[in-house]
Please model this.
Amino acid sequence: MTAKPCIPKGTRDFSVEEMAKRNYIFDTIKSVFGLYGFRQIETPAMETLQTLMGKYGEEGDKLLFKVLNSGDFRSDVSDSDWADCNLNRLAARLCEKGLRYDLTVPFARFVVMHRNELTFPFKRYQIQPVWRADRPQKGRYREFYQCDADVVGSDSLLNEVELIQMIDEVFARLGIRVAIKLNNRKILSGIAEWIGAPEKIVDITVAIDKLDKIGLDKVNDELREKGLTEEAIALLQPIILLQGSNEEKLQVLRRELAVSETGLKGIDELEYILQKLSASALRSTLEIDLTLARGLNYYTGAILEVKALDVQIGSITGGGRYDNLTGVFGLPGVSGVGISFGADRIFDVLNQLDLYPKESRQSTQVLFVNFGENECGVCLSHLSRLRAAGIRAEIYPEAAKMKKQMSYADSIGAEYVALVGENEIAEGKITLKNMATGQQSLLSVDEVIALFV
Amino acid sequence: MTAKPCIPKGTRDFSVEEMAKRNYIFDTIKSVFGLYGFRQIETPAMETLQTLMGKYGEEGDKLLFKVLNSGDFRSDVSDSDWADCNLNRLAARLCEKGLRYDLTVPFARFVVMHRNELTFPFKRYQIQPVWRADRPQKGRYREFYQCDADVVGSDSLLNEVELIQMIDEVFARLGIRVAIKLNNRKILSGIAEWIGAPEKIVDITVAIDKLDKIGLDKVNDELREKGLTEEAIALLQPIILLQGSNEEKLQVLRRELAVSETGLKGIDELEYILQKLSASALRSTLEIDLTLARGLNYYTGAILEVKALDVQIGSITGGGRYDNLTGVFGLPGVSGVGISFGADRIFDVLNQLDLYPKESRQSTQVLFVNFGENECGVCLSHLSRLRAAGIRAEIYPEAAKMKKQMSYADSIGAEYVALVGENEIAEGKITLKNMATGQQSLLSVDEVIALFV
Model:
């Protein structure tokens, strides 16, 4: 019973300091979502395995946390199921539920289940933990929060425009300088079509996606391995290495992909989005980036990713348009576009750049020192007045030694310490000590309150 | 693949309307927690089964959701484990993790694991879902949020005083009239001692707890069944039926329990708390209630429960003092006192009394009707200005029929609809329609903003 307690690997406790920082991030994001008419939903942590399985590829199925059936979980398992080596089938007998792996599939399930109560376009956001049985490593956890905003039931590119404005606003508020990288799946499809290898689109984009990591030569090697002709590879070179301003890139693409209807459609979409955004004074850089191929099996139009400019870290936000969110649940034709903020990475970026404002700590503003029974009664009445004025205030609960009380004040990050002894009581005042400067002043309760409002 | 999707029984989706209401409740509670110096932590959804098992009684162990080990979950299970009928042992081989069953045990584990980083007293709050494989029924779910505040590492009764003030403040802010019922475990122990049946304390309090439901006669019958003598039962009568003001009750108790040191200690504690609170102008009723015996195996001092006065529903908040939170994890001597708000029931009470303020809906304040490409560009620039002023605003993403756009406005609860057509553009103005009154006015952007600030 007294073994040293621990938590499952890949999971984390969040201390009061960490939670204050995380709340600052989430509250910032929520405010911006609200300004754009997005509203919050929540779905259960557990979904049926029927909802989850087969949605994340074979690898994803393995990474699902499955929940043992309650009661006699053995009753659905025959001895041959057990003796058999098929772990998947055995797991399916032992478990009918699993933990949420992302927010997208539960959202699709939500839209289908509640389609008769919803009015489209439906703009929702969702901030909840997800669980993946990935091998834990630095920056990769088995439980982490996702923070998604999506519009479903509208094909309008205005949605892309607003989502990008939201991204810009969130990072401006957080004080993080970012580049927003844009691509369009239709352009990638157009490219594959144009070089005569439409069935190779995934291979091509996967290879292009590695450009930063392995360099052009190895990308070309990989394309060769995947069976692209030398001619196709040659045609691809200007595309892979596309340079210049967004206008210049669009111009090259429009020329090279002139034969591809799909490609031109993608170029039009990208141009429309850039044009609408050009009027809205974004603080972020906007950059067409054809190497962007995240979630390619999934996205059908816009693809976007956000990189922090001042910290070396992977993408801190991503998103794109998908055409058939809910088809897998029997409701075809629901298209959507969404973004997902990477809370853990944003947390790291803010830490590294030391960008948390002091108020985000939400620490106690006034700690009353406890001098004993009589003084305490007076403090309680002062406390009521301070709290009624919205000031975060508390009293040390015992008449402990001054040193202990002051060290508590330090540990909670109290801004001021209030001393109410015999003299103060006689004068109806409070001695207030500023913990940063050490300065002390004798003030009335009203004067103390005035310091904070 | 296209089977009608569903969610696991006993779990819920929360719609945007429900989430807005829940956020209103949680935000209210969080603000009050913050004013009293409580700060938030979070712990992982999964804990090791070693942490969870044996903490909630045999019944609780059965109600834990267990998570199947990832990878080859069969490798730790011998064929005889499988053939054997011991489900508990088999589950322990298949699973090493389980879902959080409450917030108290993970908090105890947190305190022990982080004791060297924490300064005591440690005042934390925690708002997270918990999971129990209970049979679902009306008002009882398999996933529900708990909302706990605790102070650990302090024996001072000031903590009880502040927790009760917090409860009072939360319900005052929510507009729910409540009675806060108080008891003390030491008084109950004193009673058992006094009637000469100290080992019967649990039986006695369980029986007393049923007074409301089954009446005095059946309580006495139950005490008889549990082996109490007629003499003991006779002695108990004035206690079970204690009436009058808190002062009168304390007076009777002080007289009856004069022989019990423990009982008198409990009476002193209760009196101290009531006396300190009498100075603080609570809006709630405070009521000594000896039938209150919740969590008796657990609490060692104060026990409290909150009842809504205007709605027939069980306790909506509870709490008490415990002396040995962390002993089971090898850290003895950490006492604490805490409260837990019943978010689901508070949600129901607010619904029944229709007490949600309009602002809590967080719905869109201005919806711009989309008349087409040209008008849309102008709207985007108006939208930027409104949002910069903190107004929740959006534009319908397509130039759909007016009727469709207005029905969307209704569905999202938009306060105003903004019409920007040729005339408005020429004049640099907005026609704003109040959705509640139907009234329309032609306003400049500044005038629109002025409506909301």
In short: Chain B has a mean pLDDT of 93.
